[in-house]
């Protein structure tokens, strides 16, 4: 791979609001080798003049479901793995074109999909996956309609697992399920800590899993030097999850001020997912979201933005996620404009870069521009610190995208 020098760059490094002007960056292989305010000498490197454009770390989406080929998850279960994998390829390619050089599949993604990306069979971002979500029977990971019994065919494998989750009840089953997902390369383990929108049999307000079950899963992950992430909407579910050792809360939609302060004190993280809520409110019925799910969706929609306001006021550490299902994947960058209702552009940029890298336990490697960091970079035509909408244009304002040191989009050389 030929070395590459990016010249005359205005750098947002993933953290600092002040951007250095007139900078040069040397990429050698998959890493950043040198950053300088003076021209970098090289006889063999390719040179690209950014002409003052903003160079920043590649974006990170911490909450995707690559195999979610429909908003109706029962339909996903019967679509077949080939169909779902085809959707994943389309979705991941779109994410890369939007500037997302890293994603975390937090339910369903597996070793096979990760290897397909690594080997170049599928065009996509770096791919972290949590494997199948660990859920209690009747929890948010149990998508069987209420009339379906344990051994009805066509919905799941005897009620024990589906595309996105595995059902486990009691400490021993939870330990076995956790160990199996970690054995298959899961980056972390996700549990269902509350009711959810897409599942038919559990109210949003329902707390899920007992303390001993959650602590057992957390303990197993600590032994593997990783962490537990918990799907939670309600405030009580959030509090008990972090009290029992969960490191990351997914959604946190019904967060109140007291709970936000508690989460911040505990040092836990939250990954809000606004894009999916707004997308399904607008398109859910048309796309086949069941009526029971639409009803639950409406119950959380009105509190979504105020929940993020409580997180902001309490100083909760936040990541960036979208959670888009089916055809709504094309709305991935709308998360930026929705968050703009609550946060300043620099806060959102940190959430989508260095903050998310910290959640991935990859700080200093991803989500930053620094010596020795990964060469995952995007070039923005304009200043996203003033106009976050530049990142909300589905890649239209990105002139260059680099993943692992390889140029995957180039409008500067044309």
From TrEMBL:
<feature type="domain" description="Amidohydrolase-related">
    <location>
        <begin position="54"/>
        <end position="401"/>
    </location>
</feature>
<dbReference type="Pfam" id="PF01979">
    <property type="entry name" value="Amidohydro_1"/>
</dbReference>
<protein>
    <submittedName>
        <fullName>Amidohydrolase family protein</fullName>
    </submittedName>
</protein>
<dbReference type="InterPro" id="IPR011059">
    <property type="entry name" value="Metal-dep_hydrolase_composite"/>
</dbReference>
<dbReference type="InterPro" id="IPR032466">
    <property type="entry name" value="Metal_Hydrolase"/>
</dbReference>
<dbReference type="InterPro" id="IPR006680">
    <property type="entry name" value="Amidohydro-rel"/>
</dbReference>
<dbReference type="InterPro" id="IPR051781">
    <property type="entry name" value="Metallo-dep_Hydrolase"/>
</dbReference>
<dbReference type="InterPro" id="IPR057744">
    <property type="entry name" value="OTAase-like"/>
</dbReference>
